[in-house]
Design goal:
16 helices; about 10% strand; 7-stranded parallel sheet; TIM Barrel; alpha/beta; binds coproporphyrinogen I
């Protein structure tokens, strides 16, 4: 059954108001990877789980981890604690998180491996995530929004083809040149899986969703960026808009350089997350098209002090003329002292 869309334009939640195009000052704030290893309370809970995946699949634990940064810092949004790699995992690919090494996957080789992928397994295989979303929604107050997310097809494909992260992805790069049709087919299966997953997250309780194309920057020609970042994401955005109208979709093609505007225009995303390489001037230009989110260098938050406070104020001031969600340009660095996050939030809110 399709739920009746909530009238978000009148919501009290600052994040949803901004994603609907309103200007809110001070801007709402949340941080990518706000739940995670820099928080002692996360590390404590994580010790009790059998591993990272077990943690994601335990709604009691995952909802508690999601809420930790909300309690500590009063963020305007919670992003559900999970991972982008739950998608290949639910399709039967082996995904392991080796301590200190990041994710390791069984590598996807040829036609047969791609043909065997069944996108219809992804929602049934991720019911714990849906329960986590319900639990978090029940615990949030009426000013804090709940964000669901998924990895973009190209980024998921990169992990599946190379079997590991780290940003080099030689096998994926080779496939763009040597077997582009197979990469098209893989991205099509992943678009279907991600569309279903995001709709299910919305039905569970997510009020906005973000699509992380963390490795879109590897696509270094207009043609390849269009083919494997924009095209699959456009199909996902169309699907979410059609099936769950009114729920904003935030796109994050990290490393897109001067292709952000093209990405916004071509995918139809409701808001754009940018990385720290993107200038405030570029953000201001993007802000005339859609609400903007991001930019603060995570290294500045790691360092703390006056440079952090000044950067936060400069970003707020520069973008105060339009819809703006405060965020980093990438995830919180794990060595970040939690007090620096508190400093950021206080500087932003002018207290
Ligand atoms: O050891 C541990 O405790 C696991 C570390 C960890 C955590 C805390 C991983 C492994 N994933 C996560 C949570 C996570 N991942 C969230 C939770 C919500 C929040 O933001 O607070 C989110 C949104 C993600 C998304 C994610 N996972 C992305 C997209 C964003 C980005 O950082 O670019 C990517 C690329 C991943 C893959 C992944 N999972 C984990 C790691 C260390 C990585 C990155 C590996 C690499 O560098 O290639």
């Amino acid at each position: 059954m399709t739920p009746i869309p909530t009238p978000q334009a009148t919501t009290a939640k600052p994040l949803l108001r901004v994603l609907n195009g309103q200007r809110v000052d001070p801007p709402p704030v949340w941080l990518m990877r706000q739940a995670g290893r820099y928080l002692p309370e996360y590390r404590e809970l994580r010790k009790q789980a059998a591993g990272f995946m077990a943690c994601c699949n335990n709604p009691e634990m995952a909802s508690e981890i999601t809420l930790q940064p909300i309690r500590r810092f009063g963020m305007d949004a919670a992003i559900v604690f999970s991972d982008i790699l739950i998608v290949p995992h639910a399709m039967g690919r082996i995904v392991r998180f080796a301590e200190g090494e990041g994710p390791l996957l069984e590598t996807l080789c040829g036609e047969a491996d791609v043909a065997a992928l069944d996108p219809d397994l992804v929602v049934p295989g991720n019911q714990p995530l849906m329960e986590t979303l319900c639990r978090v929604a029940a615990a949030l107050d009426d000013t804090t929004a709940l964000i669901g997310f998924a990895g973009a097809p190209f980024t998921l494909a990169s992990y599946m083809i190379d079997g590991r992260g780290g940003g080099v992805f030689p096998r994926t790069r080779a496939m763009t040149a040597e077997n582009p049709d197979l990469l098209d087919r893989l991205c099509a299966v992943l678009s279907e899986a991600v569309s279903q997953l995001l709709v299910a997250e919305i039905d569970a309780a997510a009020e906005a969703v973000q699509i992380f194309d963390s490795w879109a920057g590897l696509l270094d020609s207009d043609e390849s960026f269009m083919r494997w970042s924009i095209t699959p994401i456009r199909s996902i955005v169309e699907r979410v808009h059609r099936e769950r109208p009114g729920v904003p979709v935030i796109g994050f093609p990290r490393g897109a350089g001067d292709r952000y505007q093209n990405f916004v225009e071509e995918t139809g995303v409701d808001a754009i997350q940018v990385d720290q390489m993107t200038s405030l001037e570029t953000m201001k230009a993007l802000q005339t098209l859609v609400p903007v989110q991001g930019n603060l260098d995570p290294e500045l938050m790691l360092a703390g002090g006056d440079d952090l406070v000044n950067a936060v104020r400069r970003i707020r001031e520069t973008l105060s003329g339009g819809p703006h969600v405060f965020n980093l340009g990438h995830g919180v660095v794990k060595e970040t002292p939690p007090e620096h996050v508190a400093t950021l939030v206080a500087a932003l809110r002018g207290v």
